[in-house]
Every structure is written in structure tokens, then in C-alpha cells.
Amino acid sequence: MSSVAERVADLSQARRPFVHATVVRAQEPTSARAGDDAVILDDGSIEGFVGGVCAESSVRAAALDTLSSGNTMLLRVLPDDGAGFPDTPGARVVVNPCHSGGAIEIFLRPVLPRPLLGVVGDNPIGRAVGELASFLDFEVKELSSYAGTTAVVVAGLGRNEEKAIRAALDAGVPYIALVASRTRSAVVLDSMNLTDAERGLVRAHAGLDIGARTPQEIALSLLAEIVRDLRHGTLPAPAVGIEDSRTTGGPVAVVLSASAPRRAVDPVCGMTVFVDDDSPHAVVNGQDYWFCRVGCRDSFVAAA
């Protein structure tokens, strides 16, 4: 089995969103130790070790929340009383009802694919766009395929523009920036017989109006418009392994995979549990209940 570090590298290369969870503090008798780590995928599966089954369930639930928000989180998993474990302001606290006791703090870091940007045009403007986009942490591609691309900047300056726009539209790219004057933009788009929906995806005379003149200033106006739309949630950022994406004013975040397991709340201890084939389950008065462990299930059924 690959180490967690190798798995992190493989997932990043594959542009698969995941959470890297690392135990930063542990108090006996918990089975986890500081430095233990794991990855949690957008389907809720976990690889690695950050504690026993009760702690793991809390980590998986919190990790999926960080993928949805795009924000890091410090998770504190405490025994019933939490006595003897220093307070940490700003952390999320969950109670661990398992008999083993102990307490742990786990840092959850969502790792999301960088937005893909395609640049068409081997000229000063195209090169400036690529350089600035890399500085802004976009992944810049020389495109053989436009699939999965967040945006394409067409800076052909009269060369192969129609071909590039058509290929980007056919690949479902949600943002296509045409670098041209308003007059020439209209001529190019009118010649392509685009539908209204297709034309709406092409930003003619693209970029924010900042009075740009140099290639670097034009690149700044183009990237400023793309970043604005990403942060405001009007521009999706497709990526392999996720169904959709959105923003929360911070990092670009993901909508969880359709294969992510359903969650339920244990009616005895209040823990969030994942509903799968291994989850303790009971039907009481015609209603389904799921539990973090068999003990919670048995006590609930006995009291019903």
C-alpha cells in the first residue's frame, strides 16, 4: 500500500479533490499519535489512520464539510467530559462516546485542483497571460483538449481564433475570453453562426476596463475578470473527480461526489455517522436509526 504522502501526490496529480488529515495532538488512551495522517476523498472514503472507529467517523464528516467550504479546520475529538485537554479557540469540538476515551486534535486541509486555464496565442499578450496566471496559482495548459478547463483565453490576434472558440465551446468551457477590439470581436463572432447560448459564453473584448495598454496590463485585466467571476460563483471551475464547484468568498470549493455516503445522527450520543453496510442499524416504530457503535444501538432499542 502506498504511504499517505505518496497518495497525496498521486491524488494531486490526478486532480482529485481530497482532505489531508493530520493528528497534531493526542492524549492517552487514544490509539492515535501526533503525526498520524490520512486522506479523505470526496466520496467519504478514508485511507490512512487518525484514530479508532468513533474518531474516524467524526473526521470523515468534518472532512467533507471542509471540501464543501474550501476552508481548513481544526477538529477536536474529546471524551464525554473533555477534562484535562486544553481549550483551543476556533476549533470544532465533537464528543467521542467510545469507551476507549482519550482526546485528539486533527488538522484538516482540503486539497482542491487548481483552476485550469487554456491560453491560445504565442505572442506577447498570450505569454503575459500565461505568466500572470501561473503566479495566481492557475494551472496553465497548452491544450490538446479543452475538456475540464475553467477558462480559455483566445489571444490569437487574428490567427486561428474561430477554430479555438469552436473547440472550447464543443468541450463545454464555461468562459471563453476573446482578446480583440469590440468591432473585430463582433465580426469574428458574427461569422461563426453561434447560437445565443454559445455566444453568451464568449466574452467579446474580454477583460475589466482598467485602461490597459501593454501586454502585461491586458493580462491583468483578463485575469482580474476571471478571478472575480470565480470568487463570486458566476464561473464554475470544472475538474476531474468532482461534479461541480462553487465559491464561498474564499478558496474554490467542490460539491461532493454523488457517491458520498448519507449521514445520520446517532440518537443516543449525537455523533454524526455514515450510513453504509457496516453501520449499526435499527428500526423502531417503523423509523430507521443508525448508530456509531453497537452499544448505542442496543441501549436505544432496549429503551424503546
From TrEMBL:
Pfam families: XdhC_C (PF13478), XdhC_CoxI (PF02625)
Domain TRASH, first and last residues per copy: 266-304
Domain of life: Bacteria
This protein's name: Xanthine dehydrogenase accessory factor
